[in-house]
Automatic annotation (TrEMBL):
This is MFS general substrate transporter. It is found in: Cell inner membrane. The keyword Membrane applies. Its main location: membrane. The chain crosses the membrane at residues 27-47, 96-116, 163-181, 196-215, 247-269, 313-331, 337-360, 372-392, 398-422.
Amino acid sequence: MAIFKKQTLKTKNEKTRAAELTLRQSIYPLALVTILFFLWGFSYGLLDTLNKHFQNTLGITRARSSGLQAAYFGAYPLASLGHANWILRHYGYKPVFIWGLCLYGVGALVAWPCILHRSFGGFCAAIFIIGNGLGSLETAANPYITVCGPPRYAEMRINISQAFNGIGTVVAPVLGSYVFFLKTADDTQALKNVQWVYLAIACFVFLLAIVFYFSPIPEITDADMAFQAEETHANDDIKPFRKQYRLFHAAFAQFCYTGSQVAIASYFINYVTETRANTDSSLGAKFLAGAQGAFALGRFTGVGLMKYIRPRWVFLFYLTMCIIFIAPSITQRGNTGMSMLYITLFFESICFPTIVALGMRGLGKYTKRGSGFIIAGVSGGACVPPLLGAAADANNSTAIAMSVPLAFFVAAWSYSLCVNFVPSYRDPADKFLTTKIGIEGAGAGVVEDEESGVGSGPEKAGVVEKENIGEHVDNSPEVKIG
């Protein structure tokens, strides 16, 4: 009856049993946090639909409508490098979950009067508050999913959780096609429908914040992450934070990739209504839902491949396919061009969460701080869509403007090449794949792996084997061998 125990949001930076949670022990907290992935998938999908809706109802240009994306994703660095990251480092994951949900709820309530008065600027301000809430949730949830449970399954865990994000992006456009683009309703009625959606969101997230407060979520500290990095030898020569170049490259790749993903989804409806005959906004929203369905399917497929193929190779293949298939959409029209975007969204699927997981490998005590930089890369979603919108307005063609996300995909591709072919990138990722931490029936240390060259057992790991793995470990100094 853990919910009746005295609750506290304070945490200490000491090693806990959370560093060695088994898959079974981590199921409940992972399931609870996965709900958050659906929430911001739904919110993100809703935003893509509203982008075209406001073009129709308020008579604004494609470039100006991208202000929604700029407000939403522009809030992410403020959260991931500012207030949310400060709370994460000083208090832990659970307080950030509650803080983010409360901000999300407040933003949804603020949206109500802004929609009522048809204020696009006011709604952008509400979206900025929501973006701060969701940025806070992502700052905590992505690294939490990565580090909660056996480290060797981190990429698979975060991709499974992110698949529910994909489901949320499918539900939102379907809702939009039936609620926002009603052929029998005038613009005023459509905007009222949007109001009720945001009121329902506010009620739900406030209730979810209460559930999180009373839920026993194991806290994973910097000491836990330092222990994992030490056990796996993933970062033997720990450098100052400013010299964590792999991390900053991952953040750059996240910026470029996320910018491209958001830009494509934001203008997908514009693309199909312009290039496909007899396609209105309502039908375009349904096509967007189908494309997001391909996105969600790609994540489940990617998880299946990661069971047999190293995640870094799957990542390289998927991102390469994004580049190959977005290129024809620039020149093709009709069903052919739309199909290219469908396939592109399928291969986009695993890129974001895999960059998060690979970028955090071996950061040790810098894990929480470093995760903020990777999540700050989501701000690419505030920068690339306006560029695509401006290019579309200048050429009077959304199809030609797809060259903008193509260029950013190529920039992100540099990280996928490094993580596969540069030893300083590749080795930390591979060493985490061979660790026995959190595996039931296994001791501490790592197992033999030919490609990474990591030894096995506690003797080779250079630590004393601890008894009763999974039990609480006190904060007393550990004895090293050699």
